[in-house]
Write a structure and sequence with these properties.
single chain, 380 residues, mainly alpha, 0% strand
Protein backbone atom coordinates (compact mmCIF):
# COMPACT_ATOMS: atom_id res chain seq x y z
CA UNK A 1 0.00 0.00 0.00
CA UNK A 2 2.88 2.41 0.74
CA UNK A 3 4.24 1.96 -2.77
CA UNK A 4 0.86 2.73 -4.29
CA UNK A 5 0.48 5.81 -2.10
CA UNK A 6 3.93 7.01 -3.15
CA UNK A 7 3.14 6.53 -6.84
CA UNK A 8 -0.16 8.38 -6.47
CA UNK A 9 1.65 11.33 -4.86
CA UNK A 10 4.29 11.21 -7.60
CA UNK A 11 1.65 11.32 -10.34
CA UNK A 12 -0.10 14.17 -8.56
CA UNK A 13 3.13 16.11 -7.99
CA UNK A 14 4.35 15.73 -11.56
CA UNK A 15 0.97 16.89 -12.88
CA UNK A 16 1.03 19.91 -10.55
CA UNK A 17 4.52 20.81 -11.78
CA UNK A 18 3.92 20.28 -15.49
CA UNK A 19 0.48 21.93 -15.78
CA UNK A 20 1.72 25.54 -15.26
CA UNK A 21 4.49 24.88 -17.80
CA UNK A 22 1.95 23.74 -20.39
CA UNK A 23 -0.25 26.75 -19.62
CA UNK A 24 2.69 29.14 -19.96
CA UNK A 25 3.68 27.56 -23.28
CA UNK A 26 0.11 27.88 -24.59
CA UNK A 27 -0.01 31.57 -23.66
CA UNK A 28 3.51 32.28 -24.87
CA UNK A 29 2.96 30.70 -28.29
CA UNK A 30 -0.66 31.87 -28.37
CA UNK A 31 -2.10 28.38 -28.58
CA UNK A 32 -5.35 29.61 -27.07
CA UNK A 33 -8.36 28.78 -29.23
CA UNK A 34 -11.12 31.29 -29.72
CA UNK A 35 -14.29 30.91 -27.71
CA UNK A 36 -16.86 28.62 -29.28
CA UNK A 37 -20.62 29.02 -29.07
CA UNK A 38 -20.85 26.04 -26.72
CA UNK A 39 -18.12 27.26 -24.32
CA UNK A 40 -19.21 28.63 -20.94
CA UNK A 41 -16.04 30.64 -20.26
CA UNK A 42 -16.15 34.40 -20.77
CA UNK A 43 -12.49 34.61 -21.86
CA UNK A 44 -10.35 32.17 -23.90
CA UNK A 45 -8.51 29.60 -21.75
CA UNK A 46 -5.71 27.20 -22.82
CA UNK A 47 -7.12 23.77 -23.60
CA UNK A 48 -4.02 21.57 -23.73
CA UNK A 49 -4.10 20.40 -20.10
CA UNK A 50 -4.24 16.82 -21.35
CA UNK A 51 -0.53 17.06 -22.13
CA UNK A 52 0.28 17.66 -18.45
CA UNK A 53 -2.06 14.87 -17.31
CA UNK A 54 -0.59 12.35 -19.74
CA UNK A 55 2.93 13.39 -18.75
CA UNK A 56 2.13 12.85 -15.07
CA UNK A 57 0.63 9.44 -15.80
CA UNK A 58 3.40 8.15 -18.07
CA UNK A 59 6.26 9.37 -15.84
CA UNK A 60 4.63 7.82 -12.74
CA UNK A 61 4.28 4.53 -14.61
CA UNK A 62 7.90 4.66 -15.80
CA UNK A 63 9.10 5.31 -12.25
CA UNK A 64 6.99 2.36 -11.10
CA UNK A 65 8.78 0.16 -13.65
CA UNK A 66 12.07 0.79 -11.79
CA UNK A 67 10.68 -0.29 -8.41
CA UNK A 68 11.46 -3.95 -7.62
CA UNK A 69 8.07 -4.42 -5.92
CA UNK A 70 6.35 -3.58 -9.23
CA UNK A 71 8.58 -5.79 -11.36
CA UNK A 72 5.89 -8.50 -11.93
CA UNK A 73 3.54 -5.88 -13.38
CA UNK A 74 5.99 -4.88 -16.12
CA UNK A 75 6.81 -8.44 -17.12
CA UNK A 76 3.88 -8.28 -19.58
CA UNK A 77 3.07 -5.88 -22.39
CA UNK A 78 -0.15 -4.61 -20.78
CA UNK A 79 1.16 -1.59 -18.79
CA UNK A 80 3.29 -0.52 -21.76
CA UNK A 81 0.24 -0.79 -24.01
CA UNK A 82 -1.77 1.43 -21.66
CA UNK A 83 1.02 4.03 -21.60
CA UNK A 84 1.31 3.94 -25.39
CA UNK A 85 -2.44 4.21 -25.82
CA UNK A 86 -2.60 7.14 -23.38
CA UNK A 87 0.20 8.98 -25.21
CA UNK A 88 -1.41 8.39 -28.62
CA UNK A 89 -4.84 9.49 -27.37
CA UNK A 90 -3.29 12.61 -25.85
CA UNK A 91 -1.68 13.43 -29.22
CA UNK A 92 -5.04 12.98 -30.95
CA UNK A 93 -6.57 15.31 -28.37
CA UNK A 94 -3.91 17.96 -28.98
CA UNK A 95 -4.52 17.85 -32.74
CA UNK A 96 -8.26 18.13 -32.14
CA UNK A 97 -7.82 21.07 -29.76
CA UNK A 98 -5.61 22.94 -32.22
CA UNK A 99 -7.40 22.33 -35.54
CA UNK A 100 -10.75 20.85 -34.33
CA UNK A 101 -11.17 17.56 -36.19
CA UNK A 102 -14.55 16.47 -37.55
CA UNK A 103 -16.30 13.78 -35.55
CA UNK A 104 -15.68 11.00 -38.08
CA UNK A 105 -11.90 11.59 -38.15
CA UNK A 106 -11.83 11.79 -34.36
CA UNK A 107 -13.80 8.57 -33.94
CA UNK A 108 -11.58 6.79 -36.47
CA UNK A 109 -8.51 7.85 -34.48
CA UNK A 110 -10.06 6.55 -31.27
CA UNK A 111 -10.84 3.19 -32.87
CA UNK A 112 -7.32 2.90 -34.32
CA UNK A 113 -5.63 3.67 -30.99
CA UNK A 114 -7.93 1.35 -29.07
CA UNK A 115 -7.40 -1.43 -31.61
CA UNK A 116 -3.61 -1.17 -31.37
CA UNK A 117 -3.81 -1.18 -27.59
CA UNK A 118 -6.07 -4.23 -27.66
CA UNK A 119 -3.70 -6.09 -29.97
CA UNK A 120 -0.92 -5.28 -27.48
CA UNK A 121 -2.70 -7.08 -24.66
CA UNK A 122 -5.43 -4.81 -23.26
CA UNK A 123 -8.29 -6.96 -24.49
CA UNK A 124 -11.55 -8.17 -23.01
CA UNK A 125 -11.30 -11.97 -23.08
CA UNK A 126 -13.58 -13.10 -20.26
CA UNK A 127 -16.31 -12.15 -17.84
CA UNK A 128 -15.77 -13.34 -14.27
CA UNK A 129 -19.40 -14.48 -14.01
CA UNK A 130 -20.01 -18.22 -13.94
CA UNK A 131 -16.80 -18.73 -15.95
CA UNK A 132 -18.09 -17.07 -19.12
CA UNK A 133 -15.31 -16.57 -21.68
CA UNK A 134 -15.25 -14.99 -25.12
CA UNK A 135 -14.41 -17.82 -27.48
CA UNK A 136 -13.59 -15.76 -30.57
CA UNK A 137 -10.55 -13.49 -30.81
CA UNK A 138 -12.40 -11.37 -33.36
CA UNK A 139 -15.39 -10.98 -31.05
CA UNK A 140 -13.04 -10.16 -28.19
CA UNK A 141 -11.47 -7.37 -30.23
CA UNK A 142 -14.85 -5.97 -31.27
CA UNK A 143 -16.17 -5.98 -27.69
CA UNK A 144 -12.99 -4.28 -26.48
CA UNK A 145 -13.38 -1.56 -29.10
CA UNK A 146 -17.02 -0.99 -28.18
CA UNK A 147 -16.35 -0.79 -24.43
CA UNK A 148 -13.28 1.45 -24.62
CA UNK A 149 -14.62 3.85 -27.27
CA UNK A 150 -17.93 4.14 -25.40
CA UNK A 151 -16.19 5.04 -22.13
CA UNK A 152 -13.80 7.43 -23.91
CA UNK A 153 -16.70 9.40 -25.36
CA UNK A 154 -18.76 9.20 -22.18
CA UNK A 155 -15.95 10.91 -20.24
CA UNK A 156 -15.36 13.37 -23.08
CA UNK A 157 -19.06 14.27 -23.10
CA UNK A 158 -19.02 15.46 -19.48
CA UNK A 159 -15.91 17.59 -19.90
CA UNK A 160 -18.00 20.74 -20.11
CA UNK A 161 -17.61 22.19 -16.62
CA UNK A 162 -14.47 23.05 -14.71
CA UNK A 163 -13.36 20.02 -12.71
CA UNK A 164 -16.30 17.79 -13.65
CA UNK A 165 -14.47 15.18 -15.75
CA UNK A 166 -11.31 15.14 -13.60
CA UNK A 167 -13.30 14.78 -10.38
CA UNK A 168 -15.66 12.13 -11.73
CA UNK A 169 -12.84 10.02 -13.17
CA UNK A 170 -10.75 10.52 -10.01
CA UNK A 171 -13.59 9.21 -7.82
CA UNK A 172 -14.13 6.30 -10.18
CA UNK A 173 -10.43 5.48 -10.29
CA UNK A 174 -10.25 5.43 -6.49
CA UNK A 175 -13.19 3.01 -6.42
CA UNK A 176 -11.37 0.81 -8.93
CA UNK A 177 -8.24 0.86 -6.80
CA UNK A 178 -10.14 -0.17 -3.66
CA UNK A 179 -11.71 -3.00 -5.64
CA UNK A 180 -8.52 -4.24 -7.29
CA UNK A 181 -6.39 -4.05 -4.17
CA UNK A 182 -9.08 -5.68 -2.00
CA UNK A 183 -9.36 -8.60 -4.42
CA UNK A 184 -5.61 -9.18 -4.15
CA UNK A 185 -5.85 -9.20 -0.35
CA UNK A 186 -8.91 -11.45 -0.21
CA UNK A 187 -7.41 -13.86 -2.73
CA UNK A 188 -4.26 -14.11 -0.61
CA UNK A 189 -2.21 -13.33 -3.72
CA UNK A 190 1.53 -13.83 -3.67
CA UNK A 191 1.94 -10.13 -4.46
CA UNK A 192 -0.40 -7.15 -4.25
CA UNK A 193 1.34 -5.53 -7.21
CA UNK A 194 -1.16 -5.68 -10.09
CA UNK A 195 -1.46 -3.75 -13.33
CA UNK A 196 -5.03 -2.69 -12.61
CA UNK A 197 -4.15 -1.26 -9.17
CA UNK A 198 -1.12 0.58 -10.55
CA UNK A 199 -2.97 2.11 -13.50
CA UNK A 200 -5.86 3.44 -11.48
CA UNK A 201 -3.81 4.77 -8.54
CA UNK A 202 -1.68 6.74 -11.01
CA UNK A 203 -4.91 7.99 -12.57
CA UNK A 204 -6.15 9.14 -9.16
CA UNK A 205 -2.96 11.17 -8.66
CA UNK A 206 -3.19 12.75 -12.11
CA UNK A 207 -6.82 13.82 -11.59
CA UNK A 208 -6.10 15.22 -8.12
CA UNK A 209 -3.10 17.18 -9.41
CA UNK A 210 -4.95 18.65 -12.37
CA UNK A 211 -7.95 19.68 -10.24
CA UNK A 212 -5.64 22.17 -8.50
CA UNK A 213 -5.82 24.23 -11.72
CA UNK A 214 -9.08 22.99 -13.20
CA UNK A 215 -11.62 23.53 -10.41
CA UNK A 216 -13.83 26.54 -11.06
CA UNK A 217 -12.66 29.09 -12.01
CA UNK A 218 -10.07 27.09 -13.97
CA UNK A 219 -6.88 28.49 -15.45
CA UNK A 220 -6.51 25.66 -17.97
CA UNK A 221 -8.84 23.09 -19.53
CA UNK A 222 -7.96 19.46 -20.19
CA UNK A 223 -9.35 19.53 -23.74
CA UNK A 224 -8.60 16.21 -25.43
CA UNK A 225 -7.18 14.99 -22.11
CA UNK A 226 -10.71 13.87 -21.24
CA UNK A 227 -10.42 11.19 -23.90
CA UNK A 228 -7.12 10.06 -22.42
CA UNK A 229 -8.72 9.75 -18.99
CA UNK A 230 -11.54 7.73 -20.52
CA UNK A 231 -9.08 5.39 -22.24
CA UNK A 232 -7.10 4.78 -19.05
CA UNK A 233 -10.27 4.19 -17.01
CA UNK A 234 -11.62 1.80 -19.63
CA UNK A 235 -8.30 -0.03 -19.73
CA UNK A 236 -8.44 -0.55 -15.97
CA UNK A 237 -11.97 -1.95 -16.26
CA UNK A 238 -10.82 -4.44 -18.90
CA UNK A 239 -7.65 -5.42 -17.03
CA UNK A 240 -9.54 -6.00 -13.80
CA UNK A 241 -11.90 -8.50 -15.46
CA UNK A 242 -8.95 -10.82 -15.96
CA UNK A 243 -7.79 -10.44 -12.37
CA UNK A 244 -10.69 -12.19 -10.68
CA UNK A 245 -11.27 -15.85 -10.01
CA UNK A 246 -14.52 -15.96 -7.99
CA UNK A 247 -13.97 -19.63 -7.09
CA UNK A 248 -10.93 -18.64 -5.05
CA UNK A 249 -12.95 -16.13 -3.05
CA UNK A 250 -15.56 -18.54 -1.79
CA UNK A 251 -19.31 -18.89 -2.19
CA UNK A 252 -19.99 -16.16 0.36
CA UNK A 253 -18.58 -13.68 -2.14
CA UNK A 254 -20.75 -14.45 -5.16
CA UNK A 255 -21.24 -10.74 -5.76
CA UNK A 256 -17.50 -10.35 -6.27
CA UNK A 257 -17.85 -12.02 -9.64
CA UNK A 258 -20.41 -9.43 -10.70
CA UNK A 259 -18.44 -6.41 -9.53
CA UNK A 260 -15.99 -6.22 -12.46
CA UNK A 261 -19.08 -5.59 -14.59
CA UNK A 262 -21.09 -3.53 -12.09
CA UNK A 263 -18.24 -1.29 -11.00
CA UNK A 264 -17.35 0.14 -14.42
CA UNK A 265 -21.05 0.79 -15.00
CA UNK A 266 -21.41 2.49 -11.61
CA UNK A 267 -18.36 4.68 -12.20
CA UNK A 268 -19.55 5.92 -15.59
CA UNK A 269 -23.27 6.03 -14.78
CA UNK A 270 -23.29 9.84 -14.89
CA UNK A 271 -21.28 10.29 -18.13
CA UNK A 272 -22.98 7.36 -19.86
CA UNK A 273 -26.41 8.68 -18.91
CA UNK A 274 -25.41 12.05 -20.31
CA UNK A 275 -24.00 10.41 -23.45
CA UNK A 276 -27.24 8.55 -24.19
CA UNK A 277 -29.56 11.47 -23.38
CA UNK A 278 -27.51 14.02 -25.31
CA UNK A 279 -27.15 11.74 -28.35
CA UNK A 280 -30.92 11.19 -28.46
CA UNK A 281 -31.58 14.93 -28.21
CA UNK A 282 -29.14 15.67 -31.03
CA UNK A 283 -30.57 12.96 -33.31
CA UNK A 284 -34.08 14.19 -32.55
CA UNK A 285 -32.96 17.62 -33.77
CA UNK A 286 -31.58 16.07 -36.95
CA UNK A 287 -27.92 16.35 -35.93
CA UNK A 288 -25.10 13.86 -35.53
CA UNK A 289 -24.80 12.37 -32.01
CA UNK A 290 -21.19 13.68 -32.06
CA UNK A 291 -22.24 17.24 -32.95
CA UNK A 292 -20.83 19.62 -30.33
CA UNK A 293 -23.41 21.84 -28.66
CA UNK A 294 -24.77 22.77 -25.23
CA UNK A 295 -27.38 20.04 -24.81
CA UNK A 296 -25.46 18.17 -22.10
CA UNK A 297 -27.02 17.52 -18.70
CA UNK A 298 -24.72 20.01 -16.99
CA UNK A 299 -25.44 22.63 -19.66
CA UNK A 300 -29.16 22.34 -19.02
CA UNK A 301 -28.61 22.67 -15.27
CA UNK A 302 -26.54 25.82 -15.76
CA UNK A 303 -29.25 27.20 -18.03
CA UNK A 304 -31.64 26.92 -15.09
CA UNK A 305 -29.44 29.29 -13.13
CA UNK A 306 -27.55 26.84 -10.90
CA UNK A 307 -24.02 27.61 -9.77
CA UNK A 308 -21.05 26.13 -11.58
CA UNK A 309 -19.50 24.64 -8.45
CA UNK A 310 -22.88 23.44 -7.23
CA UNK A 311 -23.58 21.41 -10.37
CA UNK A 312 -20.09 19.89 -10.31
CA UNK A 313 -20.36 18.98 -6.62
CA UNK A 314 -23.75 17.34 -7.14
CA UNK A 315 -22.45 15.17 -9.99
CA UNK A 316 -19.36 14.24 -7.96
CA UNK A 317 -21.55 13.19 -5.04
CA UNK A 318 -23.76 11.00 -7.21
CA UNK A 319 -20.71 9.32 -8.77
CA UNK A 320 -19.25 8.65 -5.31
CA UNK A 321 -22.59 7.38 -4.00
CA UNK A 322 -23.00 4.83 -6.77
CA UNK A 323 -19.39 3.69 -7.25
CA UNK A 324 -18.36 3.47 -3.58
CA UNK A 325 -21.59 1.65 -2.68
CA UNK A 326 -20.86 -0.87 -5.42
CA UNK A 327 -17.26 -1.47 -4.36
CA UNK A 328 -18.27 -1.79 -0.70
CA UNK A 329 -20.06 -5.01 -1.59
CA UNK A 330 -16.64 -6.62 -1.94
CA UNK A 331 -15.72 -6.21 1.72
CA UNK A 332 -19.08 -6.08 3.50
CA UNK A 333 -22.43 -7.94 3.40
CA UNK A 334 -25.06 -6.20 1.31
CA UNK A 335 -27.23 -5.31 4.33
CA UNK A 336 -24.28 -3.50 5.97
CA UNK A 337 -23.69 -1.62 2.75
CA UNK A 338 -27.38 -0.69 2.59
CA UNK A 339 -27.24 0.47 6.20
CA UNK A 340 -24.67 3.09 5.22
CA UNK A 341 -25.68 3.74 1.61
CA UNK A 342 -29.33 4.53 2.28
CA UNK A 343 -28.62 7.38 4.76
CA UNK A 344 -25.90 8.80 2.49
CA UNK A 345 -28.31 8.57 -0.43
CA UNK A 346 -30.82 10.62 1.55
CA UNK A 347 -28.15 13.22 2.31
CA UNK A 348 -27.16 13.43 -1.35
CA UNK A 349 -30.82 13.87 -2.30
CA UNK A 350 -31.22 16.63 0.30
CA UNK A 351 -28.11 18.38 -0.97
CA UNK A 352 -29.36 18.06 -4.55
CA UNK A 353 -32.74 19.56 -3.69
CA UNK A 354 -31.06 22.36 -1.73
CA UNK A 355 -28.86 23.22 -4.71
CA UNK A 356 -31.72 23.16 -7.20
CA UNK A 357 -34.50 25.56 -6.08
CA UNK A 358 -36.85 24.41 -8.83
CA UNK A 359 -36.94 20.96 -7.18
CA UNK A 360 -37.98 22.53 -3.89
CA UNK A 361 -40.66 24.51 -5.71
CA UNK A 362 -41.97 21.38 -7.43
CA UNK A 363 -42.05 19.54 -4.10
CA UNK A 364 -43.87 22.47 -2.48
CA UNK A 365 -46.46 22.60 -5.24
CA UNK A 366 -46.99 18.83 -5.02
CA UNK A 367 -47.47 19.08 -1.24
CA UNK A 368 -49.86 22.04 -1.65
CA UNK A 369 -51.83 20.21 -4.34
CA UNK A 370 -52.13 17.17 -2.08
CA UNK A 371 -53.35 19.32 0.81
CA UNK A 372 -55.93 21.04 -1.43
CA UNK A 373 -57.19 17.65 -2.56
CA UNK A 374 -57.56 16.51 1.05
CA UNK A 375 -59.42 19.71 1.96
CA UNK A 376 -61.75 19.31 -1.00
CA UNK A 377 -62.53 15.70 -0.08
CA UNK A 378 -63.21 16.72 3.55
CA UNK A 379 -65.64 19.43 2.41
CA UNK A 380 -67.51 16.89 0.32
Amino acid sequence: MKVYLLLMLLAMGITVLVTPIVRFACLHWRIVPKLRSRDIQSIPIPRLGGIAMTTGFVIAMLIASTIPYMAPVFSTSVPWAVMGGAAAMSLLGVIDDVIELDWMTKLSGQILITGLMALSGVQLVSFPIFGITIGSSRLSLILTLLVVVAIINAVNFIDGLDGLAAGTVGIGAMSFFIYSYSVSVISDAATYATTASLVVIALVGVCAGFLWFNFHPSSIMMGGGAETLGLILASAAIIVTGQIDPSVLGEQRVLVGLLPVLLPLSVIVVPMGDLVATSLIRMKNGKSPFHADRSHFHDRLLARGHTHRGVVTILWLWTAQVSLSAVSLLNFPWHYVALVSVPTLVLVLIFTVAEFPWMREAARKAATHGKDEDDRHSCE
